[in-house]
Write a structure and sequence with these properties.
Blueprint: E1 21-26, E2 35-41, E3 49-58, H1 61-68, H2 71-76, E4 86-94, E5 106-109, E6 112-113, H3 119-122, E7 133-134, E8 146-150, E9 154-156, H4 163-166, H5 169-182, E10 188-192, H6 196-207, E11 212-217, H7 220-229, E12 233-236, H8 242-250, E13 256-261, H9 266-274, E14 276-284, H10 296-301, E15 306-309, H11 317-327, E16 337-342, H12 346-354, E17 360-364
Parallel strand pairs: 10-11, 10-13, 11-12, 13-14, 14-15, 16-17
Antiparallel strand pairs: 1-2, 3-4, 3-8, 3-17, 4-5, 5-9, 6-7
Helix pairs in contact: 5-6, 5-11, 6-7
The chain binds nicotinamide-adenine-dinucleotide and zinc ion.
Zinc ion (ZN) binds at residues 60, 62, 85-86, 170-171.
Protein backbone atom coordinates (compact mmCIF):
# COMPACT_ATOMS: atom_id res chain seq x y z
CA UNK A 1 0.00 0.00 0.00
CA UNK A 2 2.96 2.28 0.32
CA UNK A 3 3.63 2.21 -3.41
CA UNK A 4 1.82 4.59 -5.75
CA UNK A 5 -1.28 2.77 -6.88
CA UNK A 6 -2.21 2.84 -10.58
CA UNK A 7 -4.34 5.85 -11.25
CA UNK A 8 -3.20 7.57 -8.11
CA UNK A 9 -1.16 10.15 -9.97
CA UNK A 10 -3.98 10.82 -12.44
CA UNK A 11 -4.87 14.51 -12.47
CA UNK A 12 -8.48 15.56 -12.09
CA UNK A 13 -10.10 16.45 -15.35
CA UNK A 14 -9.52 20.09 -16.25
CA UNK A 15 -12.27 20.35 -18.85
CA UNK A 16 -14.75 23.05 -17.92
CA UNK A 17 -18.49 22.47 -18.06
CA UNK A 18 -20.27 24.26 -20.90
CA UNK A 19 -22.92 26.89 -20.24
CA UNK A 20 -26.20 25.29 -19.23
CA UNK A 21 -24.96 21.69 -19.37
CA UNK A 22 -22.62 19.55 -17.34
CA UNK A 23 -20.95 16.16 -17.23
CA UNK A 24 -22.66 13.57 -15.01
CA UNK A 25 -22.68 9.87 -14.15
CA UNK A 26 -26.25 8.66 -14.05
CA UNK A 27 -28.29 5.47 -13.71
CA UNK A 28 -29.29 5.05 -17.34
CA UNK A 29 -31.34 1.84 -17.06
CA UNK A 30 -32.76 -0.68 -14.59
CA UNK A 31 -29.66 -2.87 -14.74
CA UNK A 32 -25.93 -2.98 -14.15
CA UNK A 33 -23.58 -0.01 -14.59
CA UNK A 34 -23.73 3.76 -14.84
CA UNK A 35 -23.52 5.94 -17.94
CA UNK A 36 -21.62 9.14 -18.64
CA UNK A 37 -23.63 12.08 -19.99
CA UNK A 38 -21.54 14.93 -21.36
CA UNK A 39 -24.53 17.27 -21.71
CA UNK A 40 -26.79 16.84 -18.71
CA UNK A 41 -28.77 20.03 -17.93
CA UNK A 42 -27.04 21.99 -15.16
CA UNK A 43 -29.30 22.10 -12.06
CA UNK A 44 -30.81 25.38 -10.86
CA UNK A 45 -30.82 26.13 -7.12
CA UNK A 46 -34.17 26.86 -5.49
CA UNK A 47 -34.48 29.94 -3.21
CA UNK A 48 -32.98 28.15 -0.18
CA UNK A 49 -30.44 26.01 -2.06
CA UNK A 50 -26.81 26.40 -3.04
CA UNK A 51 -25.28 25.34 -6.37
CA UNK A 52 -21.90 23.69 -5.83
CA UNK A 53 -19.21 23.18 -8.46
CA UNK A 54 -17.90 19.71 -7.55
CA UNK A 55 -14.10 19.23 -7.19
CA UNK A 56 -13.71 15.67 -5.89
CA UNK A 57 -16.07 12.81 -5.04
CA UNK A 58 -15.75 9.52 -3.14
CA UNK A 59 -17.16 6.17 -4.28
CA UNK A 60 -19.17 4.53 -1.50
CA UNK A 61 -20.32 0.92 -1.03
CA UNK A 62 -23.82 2.28 -1.68
CA UNK A 63 -22.71 3.43 -5.14
CA UNK A 64 -21.52 -0.11 -5.73
CA UNK A 65 -25.01 -1.43 -4.92
CA UNK A 66 -26.44 1.11 -7.37
CA UNK A 67 -23.90 0.07 -10.02
CA UNK A 68 -24.63 -3.64 -9.49
CA UNK A 69 -28.40 -2.97 -9.35
CA UNK A 70 -29.07 -5.39 -6.52
CA UNK A 71 -32.48 -5.90 -4.92
CA UNK A 72 -32.08 -2.89 -2.64
CA UNK A 73 -31.06 -0.57 -5.51
CA UNK A 74 -33.83 -1.83 -7.80
CA UNK A 75 -36.39 -1.09 -5.08
CA UNK A 76 -35.07 2.34 -4.13
CA UNK A 77 -33.16 4.14 -6.90
CA UNK A 78 -35.10 6.10 -9.54
CA UNK A 79 -33.71 5.33 -13.01
CA UNK A 80 -32.23 8.50 -14.51
CA UNK A 81 -30.82 9.84 -11.25
CA UNK A 82 -27.30 11.32 -10.99
CA UNK A 83 -25.51 9.13 -8.41
CA UNK A 84 -22.93 9.95 -5.71
CA UNK A 85 -23.19 11.51 -2.26
CA UNK A 86 -19.61 12.06 -1.02
CA UNK A 87 -18.01 15.27 -2.30
CA UNK A 88 -16.14 18.51 -1.83
CA UNK A 89 -16.64 21.53 -4.08
CA UNK A 90 -16.98 25.30 -4.27
CA UNK A 91 -20.23 27.25 -4.01
CA UNK A 92 -20.91 28.80 -7.40
CA UNK A 93 -24.34 30.35 -6.84
CA UNK A 94 -26.87 30.70 -4.03
CA UNK A 95 -30.67 30.92 -4.07
CA UNK A 96 -32.41 34.23 -3.40
CA UNK A 97 -33.26 33.38 0.24
CA UNK A 98 -29.83 31.97 1.20
CA UNK A 99 -28.27 34.05 3.97
CA UNK A 100 -25.37 32.06 5.41
CA UNK A 101 -23.08 31.34 2.46
CA UNK A 102 -21.61 33.11 -0.57
CA UNK A 103 -20.10 31.93 -3.87
CA UNK A 104 -16.44 30.94 -3.62
CA UNK A 105 -16.68 29.03 -0.32
CA UNK A 106 -15.17 25.51 -0.30
CA UNK A 107 -17.78 23.14 1.09
CA UNK A 108 -18.95 19.58 1.57
CA UNK A 109 -22.48 18.70 2.65
CA UNK A 110 -24.54 16.40 4.78
CA UNK A 111 -26.26 14.25 2.18
CA UNK A 112 -29.31 13.40 4.30
CA UNK A 113 -31.96 16.05 3.62
CA UNK A 114 -34.89 16.62 5.97
CA UNK A 115 -37.59 19.28 6.08
CA UNK A 116 -36.78 19.88 9.77
CA UNK A 117 -40.46 19.34 10.55
CA UNK A 118 -40.72 15.91 12.19
CA UNK A 119 -40.18 14.98 15.85
CA UNK A 120 -36.57 13.85 15.49
CA UNK A 121 -35.43 16.79 13.37
CA UNK A 122 -36.90 19.16 15.92
CA UNK A 123 -35.35 17.39 18.91
CA UNK A 124 -31.70 17.13 17.85
CA UNK A 125 -31.90 13.83 15.97
CA UNK A 126 -32.26 14.89 12.35
CA UNK A 127 -30.08 11.94 11.28
CA UNK A 128 -33.07 9.68 11.93
CA UNK A 129 -35.75 12.00 10.52
CA UNK A 130 -38.73 10.16 9.07
CA UNK A 131 -38.70 12.27 5.90
CA UNK A 132 -34.99 11.83 5.04
CA UNK A 133 -34.10 12.02 1.36
CA UNK A 134 -30.51 11.31 0.35
CA UNK A 135 -28.56 12.90 -2.48
CA UNK A 136 -27.48 10.38 -5.11
CA UNK A 137 -30.16 7.96 -3.88
CA UNK A 138 -33.53 9.74 -3.77
CA UNK A 139 -32.53 12.88 -5.72
CA UNK A 140 -29.66 13.93 -7.98
CA UNK A 141 -26.22 13.49 -6.45
CA UNK A 142 -22.67 14.67 -6.90
CA UNK A 143 -21.02 12.51 -9.59
CA UNK A 144 -21.31 15.56 -11.84
CA UNK A 145 -19.88 19.02 -12.41
CA UNK A 146 -22.62 20.49 -10.22
CA UNK A 147 -24.82 19.45 -7.32
CA UNK A 148 -27.60 21.36 -5.54
CA UNK A 149 -28.19 21.02 -1.78
CA UNK A 150 -30.26 23.00 0.74
CA UNK A 151 -28.37 25.72 2.59
CA UNK A 152 -28.93 23.83 5.90
CA UNK A 153 -26.91 20.87 4.62
CA UNK A 154 -23.78 22.81 3.67
CA UNK A 155 -20.61 22.12 5.66
CA UNK A 156 -17.85 24.73 5.12
CA UNK A 157 -14.55 22.85 4.93
CA UNK A 158 -11.66 24.09 7.07
CA UNK A 159 -8.76 25.30 4.88
CA UNK A 160 -6.36 22.86 6.57
CA UNK A 161 -8.37 19.85 5.37
CA UNK A 162 -7.21 18.76 1.89
CA UNK A 163 -9.72 18.06 -0.92
CA UNK A 164 -8.91 14.34 -0.91
CA UNK A 165 -10.05 14.08 2.72
CA UNK A 166 -12.88 16.60 2.35
CA UNK A 167 -14.32 14.39 -0.40
CA UNK A 168 -14.84 11.54 2.10
CA UNK A 169 -16.24 13.34 5.14
CA UNK A 170 -19.49 11.39 4.72
CA UNK A 171 -18.02 7.91 5.49
CA UNK A 172 -15.49 9.37 7.93
CA UNK A 173 -18.52 10.85 9.69
CA UNK A 174 -20.09 7.36 9.88
CA UNK A 175 -16.93 6.16 11.63
CA UNK A 176 -16.82 9.17 13.98
CA UNK A 177 -20.53 8.83 14.81
CA UNK A 178 -20.14 5.13 15.69
CA UNK A 179 -16.96 5.57 17.74
CA UNK A 180 -18.25 8.60 19.65
CA UNK A 181 -21.65 6.99 20.35
CA UNK A 182 -19.87 4.05 22.00
CA UNK A 183 -17.72 6.25 24.24
CA UNK A 184 -14.44 4.39 23.73
CA UNK A 185 -12.03 6.38 25.90
CA UNK A 186 -9.84 4.06 28.04
CA UNK A 187 -11.81 1.06 26.79
CA UNK A 188 -10.95 -2.07 24.82
CA UNK A 189 -12.71 -2.11 21.45
CA UNK A 190 -13.41 -4.78 18.83
CA UNK A 191 -14.07 -3.49 15.31
CA UNK A 192 -15.66 -6.26 13.23
CA UNK A 193 -15.07 -5.49 9.54
CA UNK A 194 -12.17 -3.22 8.66
CA UNK A 195 -13.35 -2.09 5.24
CA UNK A 196 -13.57 1.59 4.33
CA UNK A 197 -15.45 2.70 7.43
CA UNK A 198 -13.96 0.10 9.80
CA UNK A 199 -10.42 1.23 8.94
CA UNK A 200 -11.46 4.83 9.47
CA UNK A 201 -12.91 3.73 12.81
CA UNK A 202 -9.56 2.22 13.84
CA UNK A 203 -7.78 5.55 13.47
CA UNK A 204 -10.72 7.49 14.96
CA UNK A 205 -10.97 5.14 17.98
CA UNK A 206 -7.26 5.45 18.57
CA UNK A 207 -7.48 9.25 18.40
CA UNK A 208 -10.50 9.19 20.72
CA UNK A 209 -8.51 7.35 23.39
CA UNK A 210 -9.48 3.68 23.02
CA UNK A 211 -7.03 1.70 25.15
CA UNK A 212 -6.69 -1.36 22.89
CA UNK A 213 -8.27 -2.00 19.50
CA UNK A 214 -8.92 -5.50 18.12
CA UNK A 215 -10.09 -6.00 14.52
CA UNK A 216 -11.58 -8.76 12.39
CA UNK A 217 -12.00 -9.13 8.64
CA UNK A 218 -11.59 -11.70 5.88
CA UNK A 219 -9.14 -9.61 3.86
CA UNK A 220 -5.44 -9.94 4.89
CA UNK A 221 -4.18 -6.60 3.41
CA UNK A 222 -6.94 -4.75 5.28
CA UNK A 223 -6.06 -6.59 8.49
CA UNK A 224 -2.42 -5.53 7.96
CA UNK A 225 -3.52 -1.94 7.47
CA UNK A 226 -5.66 -2.13 10.63
CA UNK A 227 -2.51 -3.16 12.53
CA UNK A 228 -0.51 -0.29 11.02
CA UNK A 229 -3.28 2.13 12.03
CA UNK A 230 -3.11 0.99 15.64
CA UNK A 231 -4.97 -2.30 16.17
CA UNK A 232 -3.09 -4.44 18.73
CA UNK A 233 -4.41 -7.61 17.08
CA UNK A 234 -6.28 -8.24 13.82
CA UNK A 235 -7.84 -11.62 13.07
CA UNK A 236 -8.84 -13.32 9.83
CA UNK A 237 -12.17 -14.90 10.77
CA UNK A 238 -11.82 -17.47 7.97
CA UNK A 239 -9.40 -19.19 10.32
CA UNK A 240 -12.20 -19.91 12.81
CA UNK A 241 -13.45 -18.26 15.96
CA UNK A 242 -10.48 -19.09 18.21
CA UNK A 243 -9.78 -15.37 18.21
CA UNK A 244 -12.70 -14.87 20.61
CA UNK A 245 -10.81 -16.77 23.33
CA UNK A 246 -7.65 -14.80 22.51
CA UNK A 247 -9.55 -11.54 22.96
CA UNK A 248 -11.05 -12.81 26.22
CA UNK A 249 -7.63 -13.91 27.48
CA UNK A 250 -6.37 -10.38 26.82
CA UNK A 251 -9.34 -8.77 28.61
CA UNK A 252 -9.42 -10.38 32.09
CA UNK A 253 -11.27 -13.35 30.62
CA UNK A 254 -14.33 -11.14 30.11
CA UNK A 255 -14.33 -9.73 26.59
CA UNK A 256 -14.03 -6.23 25.12
CA UNK A 257 -15.82 -3.21 26.60
CA UNK A 258 -17.06 -2.06 23.21
CA UNK A 259 -18.02 -3.71 19.92
CA UNK A 260 -18.22 -1.62 16.74
CA UNK A 261 -19.94 -3.75 14.08
CA UNK A 262 -18.84 -2.49 10.65
CA UNK A 263 -19.06 -5.51 8.35
CA UNK A 264 -22.76 -6.26 7.98
CA UNK A 265 -21.79 -9.97 7.92
CA UNK A 266 -24.26 -12.15 9.92
CA UNK A 267 -21.45 -14.28 11.42
CA UNK A 268 -19.69 -11.10 12.61
CA UNK A 269 -22.76 -10.17 14.68
CA UNK A 270 -22.57 -13.53 16.43
CA UNK A 271 -18.80 -13.51 16.93
CA UNK A 272 -18.69 -9.84 17.90
CA UNK A 273 -21.27 -10.23 20.67
CA UNK A 274 -19.54 -13.37 21.94
CA UNK A 275 -16.34 -11.31 22.28
CA UNK A 276 -18.20 -8.49 24.12
CA UNK A 277 -18.07 -8.51 27.93
CA UNK A 278 -21.20 -8.62 30.07
CA UNK A 279 -22.48 -5.07 30.42
CA UNK A 280 -20.58 -3.97 27.31
CA UNK A 281 -21.76 -1.58 24.59
CA UNK A 282 -22.25 -2.51 20.94
CA UNK A 283 -22.63 0.19 18.28
CA UNK A 284 -23.95 -1.29 15.04
CA UNK A 285 -23.30 0.42 11.72
CA UNK A 286 -23.08 -2.66 9.48
CA UNK A 287 -26.14 -3.52 7.39
CA UNK A 288 -26.80 -7.21 6.69
CA UNK A 289 -28.22 -7.68 3.19
CA UNK A 290 -31.29 -9.42 4.64
CA UNK A 291 -32.82 -10.09 8.09
CA UNK A 292 -30.56 -12.31 10.22
CA UNK A 293 -31.11 -14.86 13.00
CA UNK A 294 -29.18 -13.98 16.10
CA UNK A 295 -29.31 -15.04 19.76
CA UNK A 296 -30.78 -12.01 21.53
CA UNK A 297 -31.15 -13.95 24.81
CA UNK A 298 -27.41 -14.69 25.09
CA UNK A 299 -26.10 -11.60 23.33
CA UNK A 300 -28.24 -8.85 24.80
CA UNK A 301 -30.60 -9.97 27.59
CA UNK A 302 -28.35 -12.14 29.79
CA UNK A 303 -25.31 -10.10 28.83
CA UNK A 304 -26.96 -6.84 29.87
CA UNK A 305 -25.52 -5.30 26.73
CA UNK A 306 -26.32 -1.81 25.50
CA UNK A 307 -26.99 -1.87 21.77
CA UNK A 308 -26.84 1.32 19.72
CA UNK A 309 -28.08 1.55 16.14
CA UNK A 310 -25.99 4.00 14.13
CA UNK A 311 -27.46 5.80 11.12
CA UNK A 312 -25.59 8.44 9.13
CA UNK A 313 -24.00 11.32 10.99
CA UNK A 314 -25.46 13.45 13.80
CA UNK A 315 -26.36 16.90 12.45
CA UNK A 316 -24.11 18.51 13.08
CA UNK A 317 -22.41 17.25 16.21
CA UNK A 318 -20.57 14.52 14.30
CA UNK A 319 -19.31 17.08 11.76
CA UNK A 320 -17.83 19.27 14.50
CA UNK A 321 -16.21 16.26 16.20
CA UNK A 322 -14.81 15.14 12.84
CA UNK A 323 -13.32 18.58 12.17
CA UNK A 324 -11.70 18.62 15.62
CA UNK A 325 -10.22 15.16 15.09
CA UNK A 326 -8.88 16.13 11.65
CA UNK A 327 -7.37 19.35 12.95
CA UNK A 328 -5.74 17.43 15.81
CA UNK A 329 -3.76 15.65 13.04
CA UNK A 330 -4.29 12.37 14.86
CA UNK A 331 -6.21 10.66 12.05
CA UNK A 332 -4.24 8.60 9.53
CA UNK A 333 -6.24 8.45 6.31
CA UNK A 334 -3.51 8.38 3.64
CA UNK A 335 -3.40 4.62 3.31
CA UNK A 336 -7.20 4.29 3.37
CA UNK A 337 -7.74 6.64 0.40
CA UNK A 338 -5.86 4.46 -2.08
CA UNK A 339 -6.74 5.66 -5.59
CA UNK A 340 -7.81 8.66 -7.58
CA UNK A 341 -9.15 8.72 -11.15
CA UNK A 342 -10.70 11.46 -13.28
CA UNK A 343 -14.52 11.32 -13.53
CA UNK A 344 -14.35 10.18 -17.17
CA UNK A 345 -12.38 7.13 -15.98
CA UNK A 346 -15.30 6.02 -13.80
CA UNK A 347 -15.30 2.45 -15.14
CA UNK A 348 -11.73 1.93 -13.92
CA UNK A 349 -12.52 3.73 -10.67
CA UNK A 350 -15.49 1.45 -9.93
CA UNK A 351 -13.56 -1.68 -11.02
CA UNK A 352 -10.70 -0.76 -8.67
CA UNK A 353 -13.12 -0.38 -5.78
CA UNK A 354 -15.26 -3.42 -6.59
CA UNK A 355 -12.28 -5.78 -7.06
CA UNK A 356 -11.06 -4.92 -3.56
CA UNK A 357 -7.75 -3.65 -4.99
CA UNK A 358 -8.65 -0.15 -3.83
CA UNK A 359 -10.16 0.78 -0.50
CA UNK A 360 -11.51 4.32 -0.73
CA UNK A 361 -11.45 5.43 -4.36
CA UNK A 362 -11.83 9.11 -5.16
CA UNK A 363 -12.64 10.74 -8.53
CA UNK A 364 -11.43 14.19 -9.53
CA UNK A 365 -14.20 16.19 -11.19
CA UNK A 366 -13.18 19.83 -11.61
CA UNK A 367 -10.81 22.54 -10.47
N1 LIG B 1 -25.60 2.67 9.19
C1 LIG B 1 -25.17 3.55 8.29
O1 LIG B 1 -25.51 4.74 8.28
C2 LIG B 1 -24.20 3.07 7.26
C3 LIG B 1 -23.54 3.97 6.42
C4 LIG B 1 -22.60 3.48 5.52
C5 LIG B 1 -22.34 2.12 5.46
N2 LIG B 1 -23.04 1.27 6.28
C6 LIG B 1 -22.76 -0.19 6.30
O2 LIG B 1 -21.59 -0.34 7.08
C7 LIG B 1 -20.85 -1.48 6.64
C8 LIG B 1 -19.42 -1.05 6.30
O3 LIG B 1 -19.40 -0.16 5.20
P1 LIG B 1 -18.06 0.01 4.33
O4 LIG B 1 -18.33 1.07 3.34
O5 LIG B 1 -16.89 0.12 5.23
O6 LIG B 1 -18.04 -1.41 3.60
P2 LIG B 1 -16.81 -2.31 3.15
O7 LIG B 1 -17.34 -3.32 2.21
O8 LIG B 1 -15.66 -1.43 2.72
O9 LIG B 1 -16.36 -3.03 4.53
C9 LIG B 1 -16.92 -4.23 5.01
C10 LIG B 1 -15.75 -5.09 5.48
O10 LIG B 1 -16.28 -6.23 6.18
C11 LIG B 1 -15.44 -7.32 5.86
N3 LIG B 1 -16.09 -8.58 6.18
C12 LIG B 1 -16.86 -9.38 5.40
N4 LIG B 1 -17.27 -10.46 6.08
C13 LIG B 1 -16.76 -10.35 7.34
C14 LIG B 1 -16.85 -11.14 8.51
N5 LIG B 1 -17.54 -12.30 8.53
N6 LIG B 1 -16.22 -10.71 9.63
C15 LIG B 1 -15.52 -9.55 9.64
N7 LIG B 1 -15.40 -8.75 8.54
C16 LIG B 1 -16.02 -9.15 7.41
C17 LIG B 1 -15.12 -7.12 4.39
O11 LIG B 1 -13.99 -7.86 3.97
C18 LIG B 1 -14.89 -5.62 4.33
O12 LIG B 1 -13.51 -5.27 4.52
C19 LIG B 1 -21.64 -2.03 5.46
O13 LIG B 1 -22.50 -3.06 5.94
C20 LIG B 1 -22.46 -0.84 4.99
O14 LIG B 1 -23.64 -1.23 4.32
C21 LIG B 1 -23.94 1.71 7.17
ZN1 LIG C 1 -21.65 6.65 1.51
Amino acid sequence: MSTIAPGRSAQPSTSKPENGVMRALFKHHAGEGLAFDAARPKPTPGPRDVLIRVRKVGICGTDRHIWEWDQWAAGRIPVGIVTGHEFVGTIEAVGSAVTKYKPGLRVSAEGHITQWADFNSRTGNAHIASDTRIIGIDRDGCFADYVVVPEENVWPVHPKIPDKVAAVLDPLGNAVHTVMAANVSAKSVLISGVGIIGLMAVTVAKAAGASRIFATDINPPRLDLARRLGAVAAYDVRQGDGFINEIKAATRGEGVDVLLEMSGAPSAFDQGFRALRNGGTAAILGIPSKPITWNITEHVVFKGATVLGINGRKMFETWYQMEELLLSERLELDEIITHEFPLEDFKRAFATMMSGEGIKVVMGVGG
